[in-house]
Specification:
methylated-DNA-[protein]-cysteine S-methyltransferase activity, transferase, MethylDNA_cys_MeTrfase_DNAb, MethylDNA_cys_MeTrfase_DNA-bd, MGMT, 5 helices, two-stranded parallel ribbon, 161 residues
């Protein structure tokens, strides 16, 4: 059974969704990848409680990676892209080309961009760390202002650490 809760991040309200296997999604309120039916609202789901704790630590600069069970649903290709996203080090950015190279399919840059845009687990699967080849910020389902904010937070804290 799926459950959800809301999280008040410094960048806006997020909806968090989990099932028994793990976290299904973490969306900002404007994201279009959020499903219409989220399940039952829950304040006591241990996965959601742990997700909120780890997000609080992330925004406080005390966490650079997440240790949550993930259960995002996607195609085999999307899953391969999302796995590589989790390998991008905190405080760094990669281009879509670098992601395509990392999955062993250098010609799949556009497909990587589409898979990146369908990532249902914002921040925790750090699609915000992917930028254009030229270094420009490109699309982010949560909004470019949030992407810039997340990168600024990470780069500022990364340089201090």
């Amino acid at each position: 059974m799926n459950t959800f809760t809301h999280y008040h991040s410094p960048l806006g309200i997020m909806t968090l969704q989990a099932c028994e296997q793990g976290l299904l999604g973490a969306w900002f309120e404007i994201e279009t990848t959020m499903p219409k039916h989220l399940g039952d609202k829950s304040e006591d789901n241990p996965i959601l409680i742990n997700t909120i704790k780890q997000l609080d630590e992330y925004f406080a600069g005390q966490r650079t990676s997440f240790t949550l069970p993930l259960a995002a649903k996607g195609t085999v290709f999307q899953q391969s892209v999302w796995q590589v996203l989790r390998e991008i080090p905190y405080g760094e950015t990669w281009s879509y080309q670098q992601i395509a190279d990392a999955i062993g399919n250098p010609k799949a840059v556009r497909a990587v961009g589409l898979a990146n845009g369908k990532n249902p687990i914002s921040i925790i699967v750090p699609c915000h760390r992917v930028i254009g080849k030229s270094g420009k910020l490109t699309g982010y389902a949560g909004g470019l202002n949030r992407k810039a904010g997340l990168l600024e937070l990470e780069q500022k804290l990364f340089k201090v650490s």
